[in-house]
Write a structure and sequence with these properties.
3 domains; two-stranded antiparallel sheet
């Protein structure tokens, strides 16, 4: 009755109500659009600043190279970068080559390779400063050898972004343990290499530094997440590199780019100072490992890293030095193998390469023993998906907030954004029709969101 009387007094009240709601919605929408526009501008500004810093490092490296060439007119980088690691270390030790000539040779080649492949995140001009004190490390196993490092490995004064914007403008206060150890062994880190956004991808692209290409075929991917390392070494711009691997991040780029890589046992080499977007999980641990042109180079790199310096700088690493006796032993080995895991179908080329390898090993006198994975279907999801992203991907998604999502990652993270009850429901109804898809959806529900427990 009151409303009726109110309408009699003011017959336009319904119109006023609708107008007020419409105005409120429009203002709210405009504010949201304005806020997004401001955030986009900030994001673009941040990316532009990072790219300018990167270009400046390339320019500084080019300038330093030109100055060196002026004072050394007979300098030719091609005769240096074509050497094998044993040849290079030998010439550096006996003085036939000087560390500065070797550094500038690889610097020049790395810049050339980057022009074609976009594999470098930043040139480390601290390498030039390091030359001043390099002779104090003449006894080091890698004396004077320039090395490349994956972008997420800490180097004092430089970002370790993992390809996400929230980690920009946060330079490392000190070197990561592996970088510190390599410097003490006489190695000269001279370039950081590109990674995929969040590191959890088999491609190599991020919104800050862009897409890295394959040195064998620029139409193909170089693999990930140590993709920049694979591309730079495969292209000849580095002789030794350092990456990280949790589910193929060293092995895939090495395979795709035609080089060698090693994923050591977890915690064999220190991870202190390495950046990540999925920290805290303990069931599927990441490993630091080397990439190089050949197996002998990987062995020397491991020998250099597994030293007293690393065990002192990171006491959590078991103090087990490189075992020369085991590595150099000619005793036949007993090696387990499988052609398929009965889950992913290998391509014909992979099967052929595997069988050729098996044949060569048997000819060398080794015994090859076939085996099958137990419960591979469950292991794939319970260990890999639940292990790495047990918090329903919440930590990874938080790192991606407020920034651009790279197209190579967008499709992978979409399911994680779905409400948990939706994922559970879809998992149940898809189980009879698409059991694998059902298992994926069930696994990405995670265990429990960690920060909610806090």
């Amino acid at each position: 009755m009151g409303m009726f009387n109110l309408k009699q007094i003011n017959p336009d009240i319904n119109t006023d109500w609708r107008l007020a709601v419409t105005t409120t919605v429009c203002v709210a929408g405009a504010l949201i659009i304005f806020k997004k526009s401001i955030n986009n501008r900030k994001t673009q500004k941040k990316i532009l600043k990072a790219r300018q810093r990167r270009e400046k490092s390339f320019h500084d490296a080019q300038q330093a190279l030109q100055r060196f060439k002026k004072t050394n007119p007979d300098f030719k980088s091609s005769s240096i970068v074509s050497l094998s690691l044993p040849e290079l270390t030998g010439k550096l030790k006996d003085g036939a080559l000087e560390p500065d000539a070797v550094l500038y040779a690889f610097m020049e080649k790395a810049l050339q390779v980057n022009d074609k492949l976009n594999c470098n995140a930043e040139m480390l001009m601290g390498a030039v400063e390091q030359l001043k004190s390099i002779d104090t490390h003449k006894k080091g196993l890698l004396y004077g050898v320039p090395i490349s490092i994956k972008e997420n490995l800490g180097y004092k004064g430089h970002d370790s972004t993992c390809g996400v914007l929230c980690k920009l403008d946060q330079p490392a206060v000190i070197d990561s343990v592996v970088v510190a150890v390599l410097k003490r062994q006489g190695a000269i880190p001279f370039v950081k290499t590109n990674v995929p956004q969040g590191l959890l991808s088999y491609d190599c692209s991020n919104p800050i530094y862009g897409q890295t290409k394959n040195p064998c075929n620029v139409q193909k991917t170089c693999g990930g997440s140590s993709g920049g390392e694979g591309a730079l070494i495969g292209g000849g711009g580095s002789i030794l590199g350092l990456g990280t691997d949790i589910a193929g991040s060293i092995r895939i780029p090495a395979s795709f780019c035609g080089i060698c890589g090693l994923k050591p046992t977890s915690n064999r080499i220190s991870l202190r100072g390495a950046s990540s977007c999925a920290r805290g999980q303990k069931s599927v641990l990441s490993s630091v490992g080397p990439l190089a042109r050949d197996v002998e180079s990987l062995a020397l790199f491991m020998q250099a890293l597994l030293c007293e310096d690393m065990f002192t700088l990171d006491p959590t690493v078991p103090p087990i030095p490189f075992n020369h006796k085991v590595y150099e032993s000619s005793e036949p080995l007993r090696i387990g193998y499988f052609e398929t895991d009965d889950y992913f179908q290998p391509s014909p080329s992979m099967v052929r390469a595997f069988r050729e390898t098996k044949e060569l090993l048997e000819k060398a006198g080794h015994t090859l023993v076939p085996f099958k994975f137990p419960r591979i279907f469950n292991a794939m999801y319970d260990m890999i998906v639940k292990g790495i992203l047990a918090d329903e991907g919440a930590t990874l998604l938080k790192h991606l907030e407020g920034g651009h999502i790279d197209p190579t990652l967008r499709a992978q993270i979409k399911p994680y954004r779905l409400p948990k009850f939706v994922k559970k429901f879809l998992s149940v109804i898809l189980k009879p029709i698409f059991p694998r898809m059902s298992a994926v959806l069930n696994s990405i529900c995670g265990v429990r969101i960690t920060f909610m427990r806090w």
